[in-house]
Amino acid sequence: MRAKSWTKAVLAACLLALVCSPAWAQKIKIAVAAPLTGPAASYGENIKSGVETKVEEINAAGGINGVPVEVAYFDELCEPREAAVVAPRIVGDKDIVGVVGHVCSSAHLAALPTYVRMGMPVISPTATNVTISQQNKDNQGRVWSFRNVYLDDYQGYFLANYVKDVLGLERIAVFYENNDYGIGLKNAFVAEAKNVGLAIVGEEGYVKGATDFAPQLTRLRGGNPDGLFISGYYNEGALIAAQAGNLGMNVVKFGADGLDNVDYINLGGDAANNTYMTVPFLAEAAPEQAQDFIKKFEEKYQRDLDWMSANAYDAAGKFAAAVAAVGTDRTAIRDYLAGINSPENAYIGITGATYFSEIGDPEKGAFVKMVKDGAFSAAPKQMQ
Amino acid sequence: MLEQQLINGLTLGLIYALIAVGYTMVYGVIQLINFAHGEIYMLGAFFCVTFITAAGMPFYVAILMAIICCMLCGILLDIIAYRPLRKAPRLAALITAIGMSIFLQNVALIIWGSRSRPFPQGALPPFFREKALVMGDISLTWLQLFIFAVAIIMMLGLYLTINKTRIGTAMRALAQNKTAASLMGINVNYVISFTFALGSAMGAVAGILVSVYYNTLYPTMGYTAGVKAFAAAVLGGIGSVPGAMVGGVVLGVAEALGAGYVSSLYRDGVAYAVMIAVIIFRPSGILGRSVVDKA
Q1: One fold for A26-150+287-365 and A153-279
Q2: Which of A241, A334, A375, B71 is the 20 to 30 Å CA partner of B95?
């Protein structure tokens, strides 16, 4: 009897040693939380190709301190419901050092509480909603969710100034998607429009997935606008542009990063022409260090580099830099990211120098691109 | 603005009506709400686009081929999923219908992918996008006129088929009493197959018109359209073909006016509120006959 319990204790000790295997054996995984299927799948595609390219580069150079990096993909369809389901799964995987994602602001907001509570560093390359940085701190005041993209209030502010000063518009009709992204962007635009003296001649909303916009557009048309602000995403945006054309509204269309997808042109047809949109990154205006990547990307994926891929590439790069410097401990990685807080210790990536404010938001400018003759091009006049 | 909103609503409503007749005919004949009907509508659009892009067919030929394929799908749907359950409780068939809807939607997702795709514009007659009428506030494209014309012709044809042909008479007989109809020498399964084919043809046309009108099609498009059309069928009186037509137009116009005058975010809410109001005061729908439930 005595001998038996003695062997048991040895066995238990062995088991314990196995479970708590030392740090050097650990894998390094970066999670990508994005819509990989569903209507927003092309966003996920962009994030995937950005992260994939970065990780391949790292592994080709021998990994981080000799350990190869893996990417774990989590599909959340850009839906808050799904995002809240994948977040605990990501946190539960002990090998994951950080999350690149989420893509959509509403999905990011839904997953955020889990990351903050369980201590998982996150960098969103695309979520632009303002309220994210009000909810990203744990009870010790530590920021867990960073982003390397500008905010909606900045896009809205920038757009109001751009359409007034550069495009010379005066009467704006606002058509927004009824979700965190669309409303936040619209509110910022409307507030700044009042400051710069733009007249808002109508505000209408729509729900995601709608296909018929004629009633709302008819109402907006009544205000006699010379510009139509589409505060939403490309799928609905393209239909809005086309249906506005059918109703005889030949006005300048403009929007933010959500419109920036080649499907906007495919679905919108001729009506997509004469649309302006703000983007966080424009290959034509990219810094020196990006040129090599742009060439490689275009060769590999046979398409133009989009801003989402560029931001995702940099987000993955920040995690790689953090792991190389402080190892795989999540809290240490968070502290490292929080330390990127001034122009002097900024992260220099292909989208320029990025550093985070106290609340995890970056200081980054916007660029403007437009649809001309059925293709994207840089707008003739930028504004910085 | 009112005139334009009426035109917007009418375009939408006629399309709802085309789908709604498919629900109502099947319900009239076998008392089944065929929830997979929305998927037939989606398949119509995808077949048409596939015939144009992959087989290079001209637009009108592709429409015809898509209609034929959808009719076959409708008949197959009945034979595979519903015929074995003809004697089973109605609930079993209803659940099967929901299952078939999910199944077909996912098959389409696998075959065609999840992204919205545009309707190949090159295949369309060029006059579609031109304005037929610009008068003051009203703007009407040839495409909208085409939708009006096709929808009205299809529904007239359907009306004549049901009321003036032998097979139409058989359908009405079946709707009244299945046992008596079969005693009179009517081939029940043949008539049911014909009903499914007819409804599917209407659904396919609606799917094609919608994908041309909005220049977009995606595998989940059948769901919302199906729910709306079902609501239209109930509004008009389920089982009544003229009722489904009226119900579709009423729902479409209510939606457009709701979005135009009440609140753009509650357009669906307004449409359903109209439906609920009608059902409260006329439980059998606008043109439905109140019948004593046999069960």
Answers
A1: yes
A2: B71
Q: Return the residue in A78, A204, A208, A247 with the most chain B beta carbons within 10 A, the one to mutate for interface testing.
A: A247
Strands A96-101 and A69-75 come out as unpaired
Return d(Cα A88, Cα A113) in angstroms, integer: 10
Task: Give the nearest partner residue to A267 out of B134, B215, B259, using CB atoms.
Answer: B215
Task: Please indicate whether, in this complex, the C-beta atoms of B5 and A215 are within 8 angstroms of each other.
Answer: yes
Token code pair at residue A162: 């751009």
Residue in chain A closest to B109 (alpha carbons) equals: A38
Cβ distance B1 to A219 less than 8 Å, yes or no, reads yes
pLDDT recorded at residue B248: 94
Q: Which of A42, A218, A266 sits opposite B4 (nearest CB)?
A: A218
All domains of chain B, ordered by start, with CATH?
A: 2-281 (1.10.3470)
Chain mean pLDDT for chain A: 89
**Where are the domains positioned within chain A?**
26-150+287-365, 153-279
Chain position carrying tokens 């929901």: B98
What is the distance in angstroms between the Cα of B217 and the nearest Cα belonging to chain A? 10
Using the Cβ of B291 and the Cβ atoms of chain A, whether some distance falls under 8 Å is answered with: no
By the 8 A CB rule, do B32 and B26 touch?
yes
CB burial readout A330-358, b (16+ within 10 A) else e? bebbbebbbebeeeeebbebbbbbbbbee
Residue B287 CB: number of other CB atoms within 10 A?
Answer: 18
Predicted pLDDT at A304: 82
- Judge: A206–B265 Cβ closer than 8 Å, yes or no: yes
Nearest to B265 among A205, A238, A247 (CB): A205
Angstrom distance (rounded) from CA A176 to CA A75: 26
pLDDT digits (tens, 9 = 90+) for B161-187: 999 999 999 999 998 888 999 999 999
Establish if A204 touches chain B: CB-CB under 8 angstroms: yes
pLDDT in tens, A40-77: 888 899 999 999 999 999 999 999 989 999 999 999 99
Say if domain A26-150+287-365 classifies as CATH 3.30.470.20: no
Q: Which residue matches tokens 């109605």?
A: B90
Name the token pair of B293.
């439930």
Q: Which segments of chain B have a pLDDT < 70?
A: 290-295
Q: Which CATH architecture has domain A153-279?
A: 3-Layer(aba) Sandwich (3.40)
Given a contact cutoff of 8 angstroms between Cβ atoms, the answer to whether A26 and A329 are in contact is no
The mean pLDDT value for A288-317 works out to 90
Interface test with B, best of A183, A217, A218, A235 (most B CBs within 10 A): A218
Report ipTM (2 d.p.).
0.76
Helix (H) / strand (E) element for A352: namely strand A352-354
SS3 state at B255: helix
Tokens of B70: 């959808």
Farthest CA pair distance, chain A: 93
Window from A18-27, A244-253, B251-260 with minimum mean pLDDT = A18-27
The answer to whether A346 and A354 have CB atoms below 8 angstroms apart is yes
**Which chain A residues are Cβ-neighbours of B5 within 8 angstroms?**
215, 218
